[in-house]
Every structure is written in structure tokens, then in C-alpha cells.
Amino acid sequence: MATAAAHRAAGTLMHGAADAIGEAEAHQRAFDAAVAADERIEPRDWMPDAYRATLIRQIAQHAHSEIIGMQPEANWITRAPSLRRKAILLAKVQDEAGHGLYLYSAAETLGTSREELLDKLHSGRQKYSSIFNYPTLTWADVGAIGWLVDGAAITNQVPLCRCSYGPYARAMVRICKEESFHQRQGYELLLTLSRGTPEQHAMAQDAVDRWWWPSLMMFGPPDDASQHSAQSMAWKIKRHSNDELRQRFVDICVPQAESLGLTLPDPDLKWNEERGHYDFGAIDWDEFREVLKGNGPCNEQRLSRRRQAHEEGAWVREAAAAHAAKHSNHATGTEGEQA
Amino acid sequence: MTDTDWPLWEVFVRSRRGLSHTHAGSLHAPDAELALRNARDLYTRRGEGVSIWVVPSAAITASSPDEKDPFFAPSADKPYRHPTFYEIPEGVKHL
């Protein structure tokens, strides 16, 4: 389902390419032409093996992050301070599950399976975002996650809506629409605390102090140390560099923090007239690498909880499969256009 | 798909009456009934739909991307199928 430009390029080249090497080259050129023309690559198109592997790695990591990301917030569902907040938090955590499922489906179009993806998450062979290895110590953390963590995610994800791989881009469009609610509920929650009692204000400030730096790390290593960036930009999987997106996020957050009546925990944060951006302090990349390696505060807890949920859900999956097998003669045949 | 994965279903959602069902995405489910329920939870959490179809992905027959040029070629060289192909004198109305 590649697009016109790609097929013209492939067609022209295929006529003269009798041998396999010529054919491979024609495929590569058709792919390059489609990417250059800003057209989308679809599942059944030819694509370089490395492009496929990169996408599986990135989409899987993204999906796993949504699924693991349910845990730190779910920690507060039973202790939400009001029914309103509880209903909001339930809806948000349910959205994260949905986002994980959209993304698993997108990854599966590349030839991997759901079982394989889950297995790689559970065995630690595929990663999820390090941010979810930090604990949610107070109710204000739910607000800080919505504002900062989801805010950083949105900054990262909006350009992914134009990613060169069609199914990933389409999943991101749906996700970005829903993330906006997540960020706003977090901001409103923090604002309520910030304007509350001195204790509530302090709780909000403490949460922002703890989540600010890990949120900046969500954009990944600096450009000169990012191993996948250059190739992903060339393939138009990524549209902006890590540092560019991180700067964009900082610039957005500073005035938002002021409106909240809260400060960001960085003494070096100041407006740079010349650059037209906020300067900010050095990020502790040693901490980032440690958490990535598995030595964050909650790495072990998050993975073991995920494995436990999977194992404890086994009987539900088995029962559903048994029910489906028993009623397999009714399994298909819902009404069509007449419905 | 592996042995333990439930079958894959394609989900089509009619966003409101008067519009056709549009492909929304896919999901795994053991049978059609659960596919419908999962589709409701996954693709219509914000009132995006008034009707859902689920179709086993394996039941879909698709044209091959490799065949695209010859397969669709017959329509490419018939510009006379478009109204703009015809020259009509200026001033002729309702045409």
C-alpha cells in the first residue's frame, strides 16, 4: 500500500532489474522515495530490516510504558480524596491501558505477536520508560505525573503523529487526543493543592520537586550521546531531536509553573534573551543510566507486579478461550450492513 | 499470531447515524461477542461510536501492495471519467 511516488520509483527500476540484487535495490529505492516524499509506509510494504526492528523496539517500549505506567497512579485510586477525583483517575488509568493496546496492535503489524511482546516485557528483554520506576509517595504525585510526565509525553508524541510508519502514526493521533485530558486533570489537581492549605501547597511543591528532573530525562540522552537518533530522524520515525523537544518542554513549563504558584527545582533556570529560550541546569545522566539499568527505586516492584497480574489473569484467559471453543458455531456471523 | 494469542479482529466504528463504519483499529479476543465488548471499551470510551462491527482479520482479502500499479492501472488512463475532462462554453449554466 505504498504510495504513488514509491511505486513509480519501484516500477521504473523493476523493469531493468532481472537479478535479486537489483530487485532488493529497487525495493530500497522505492522505500527511500516514499520516505523522502513524506508518504507513509504501510504494513505490507517492503521495508529495510533495520527499520522494522527499530520500529518494533520503539513501539514495544512505548506500549510497555503505557501498561507499566498504570501502576504508579493506580496506587492512589483507592485513596483519592473525593469521588470526582477517583472517577477521573480511574478513567485516566483505563486510558493508559487503551493506549498500550493501540500500540501493541501497531507493533503486531510488523510481524511480532502479543505473546512475544508481553514475554519480552516480563523477562526484561524490552524496556519501558524509566520514569515509571519512581514511586508515587503522595496524592500530589498524581497531579505532578499528569502535568509533567504526561506533558513531556505529549511533547514527544505530537510529532510522532507524522511518523513515517502508518499504523504507529495513527495510534499516536488517537493517543494524543486523549492525553490532553490527562495533562489538564493533573494541572488542575496541582492548582487545587497549591491554592489550598499550607500543607497542601507544600505537598504539591514537593511532588513537582521530585518529578521535574525525571520528566526532563524522558526525552532521552543528549543528542550527541543518543545512539538511535540520527537513523530514526533519517527514516522520519523521529521528527525532532531529544534536546530540541526537551527545550520545548522546559519553555512550556516555566510559565505554567508560575501560574500554579509553584517553583521548578533548578537554580540555573532563567530566560536567555539571546537564544529566545530558557536555560536550565545539568541533568544527572548517571541517575538516568542507573534507573535504566534496573536500579531505580521501583524497577523490581513494577515488573513483578506486572508478571503477577499476568499470571493471576491466566484463568480468565483460559475460561474465555474455553467458552469461545464451546460456542464456536456462534462465534461469527453478526449482522452486516443491515445491523 | 502464536498458539496462545487470541485471534485478531478488525474494528469498524460508525461515529454517527448517516455515516458509514470506518476502520478504527484491531484487537485480540477469543470470540465475536468479547471482540465487540472489547471494541466498545477500547475504541468508544468517549462516545466515538453508535455502532461497531468486528471482523476476524483472517477473513479480510486485500489487494497486494506489489500489484498496486497493474491492479489499479485501468483507472489511471481514463481522464474522461472526470467532469473536468470536458470543455463547455462559458456562460452555460447548471452543467
Task: Produce a short descriptive summary.
Chain A has 339 residues and is mainly alpha-helical. Chain A has 14 helices and two strands. In chain A, helix 7 packs antiparallel against helix 11.
Features:
heterodimer; A: 339 residues; mainly alpha; Ferritin; 14 helices; 65% helix; disordered N terminus; disordered C terminus; B: 95 residues; alpha+beta; Ubiquitin-like (UB roll); 2 helices; 3 strands; 22% helix; PaaB_sf (chain B); PaaB (chain B); oxidoreductase (chain B); EC 1.14.13.149 (chain B)
Describe the structure.
The complex is a heterodimer of chains A (339) and B (95). Chain A is an all-alpha fold and 339 residues long. Chain A has a single domain, classed as Ferritin, core subunit, four-helix bundle (Ferritin, Up-down Bundle). Helices cover 65% and strands 2% of the residues of chain A. Chain A has helices at 4-16, 20-36, 49-68, 70-74, 83-108, 114-122, 140-157, 166-194, 198-217, 229-234, 242-260, 285-295, 299-312, 314-326, and strands spanning 270-272, 277-279. In chain A, a hairpin with a 4-residue loop joins strand 1 and strand 2. In chain A, helix 7 (140-157) packs parallel to helix 9. The longest helix of chain A has 29 residues, at 166-194. The model of chain A is unreliable at 1-14 and 333-339 (pLDDT under 50). The model of chain B has no long low-confidence stretch (mean pLDDT 90). The A-B interface holds A 1-2, 7, 11, 42, 44-45, 91, 94-95, 98, 101-102, 105, 108, 113-116, 170-171, 174, 178, 317, 320-321, 323-324, 327-328, 330-334, 336, 339 and B 1-2, 4-6, 8, 25-28, 30-34, 36, 41-42, 45-46, 51, 53-54, 56, 62, 64-65, 68-69.
